[in-house]
Fold this protein.
Amino acid sequence: MSSQTFAIGDEVAPDFRLPSLPPEAAPAPLLTLNQLLLKLDPPSGAKKYPGLWTTAAHLAQCAQVSLEEMPIELLHKITPEYMLWLKARRFSSKSIDTYHYNLRRLQSLADEHCSPPEITALRLKWSAIQTVLDSSGKAPKTVPLFAISKNISPADFTSDDLERWGTWMLRRGRKLRTVRVLKWHFRRAIIDSKSEDLLPAFRCRAAATRYAISPEEMPAQLRAELATVLEWKQARFARGRPRRGKHRRTSARLLEQYARRLYGFAVKIAKMGEITSLRTLFSERVVTAFADWAMNQRQLTRSSLSRLSLIATAIKHHPQYQDVDLSWFDGLMSELPKDDEAVRLERKRKKFIPYETLVTIPGKIRTAMLRCKDAIQRAWYAHDELLITWLTTLPWRQENLRECRIGDDNQPNLFFGPTPELVHIAKPGWVQDRLKTDPQQSFWQFQFSESETKTGRAIRGFLPRRLIGPLETYLRLYRPLICGKPDPGRLFLNREGGSLARQLMSDLVGQLTFQYAGTQMSPHLCRDAFAGAWLHAHPQDYLSLSKILWHVSVEYTLSIYGRGFDESSGACRVDEWLGPQ
């Protein structure tokens, strides 16, 4: 410190040097949540932020540590667990919203007072993207926050990171359909603001290769021909069509989708000029070019391209196209490389839940229902419990399950009535015992006509006892509370009380399996889980499994689930039959 000369009274003070002081120490970094709150709200008098203190106490309980030990960096990681913790303790929805708001305030204050320099720099890099999202009405605002918490810069942010953000949102209790829409709005906001260069590793245009043409964009002649073929494939009787060639709506929709994709490729991608009819569309030149592009550039699988056979079969049998030569098609399909089985199984493994885990979900739903006090919410719990119980007991195809008719319909698919006469229907032992005492006794039964099943066979059966109790309780107490007006007459409903669409059904099952088992699973994979458990309990009983799954033949069941049933299995059966002697 330099010497100073100053006056004291009338005399001049002699020069002297002030003692040097140690440099001022930098403030200690804030490491715990308690230290942050003490900085904001020193312990002198009444607390200025009682809500933040209460929320902090909850967070510490959720993390199972003391408030003095709660690390600051845990604030941005604990949100999903904290939301579930509050719900498990039956806080009201308004209280949960309040505590969630307080948590966001604590996160913001931690960013302001406790962020290390590298996090501050990372937040600055994300500021432009955050501004874009804030200015968009529907885009999610938490994507940058999630990326910062994972130490991901905009330059390194990928589509996989957005998927991980979606999983993070699902763990916070958001619905599967909501998360999918939010991801779309995120991409849309980036594209509309011309900010794609800010995320160089991220594929903003998820549908950049969407090439299908809507029916309205097709030439009039092609559109009319396609409509004629679709009507011919779905008619109850059509001249020239094989007996088992009739399409249900699902298959007809697939045929139309692939025709639109093929036309979209021809005019958008390959620029093949004018294509005005089904003959010019499904030609060797167009289909071969499409297969080459799909396999080499889009990396599609052989199984996905096999849907082209829907168009080929329709043209082959339709009377109007008998002169069309399709001899090249089978050769083209045989040349396509087989799908990598290891890749397929790995892809399936990521979205598969073992049957042993799947059957525990209804019990978890019932536990949540017993804690719920709201009558409508309890009704939806009962609905969802029955749905998963059904999928693990009678693994029907999704279309049959979501379109299952009940009520006073002339031909309901599910009904309570006496056993039919002159109709073969296998009777379980407990049904036979009751019929001995009362031949006119009624039972819960199901039936589907030939036109309602994929295999074109009529289906009948008695409802397994495992389903009867939950079904009767649901129909008597809960379905009237959630059914819309007019009643759609379906067993299962969407959240507005109407019929379940295909995507809504997939979303609902995916939401329930993720919420209670940690993995999004489709309704169709529930069939695979059931099949695996059945064969484990009943080795080599493929015939029964074929009937349970409503397959066209036991050979088809073997082709799907019999990969491990080979000649060695036959040798084992011989050994078990004959024994050691």
User: Anything to note?
Assistant: Strands lie at 7-8, 11-12, 414-418, 442-448, 459-462. The longest helix spans residues 93-114. Confidence is low (pLDDT under 50) at residues 1-27. The two ends are 106 Å apart (CA to CA).
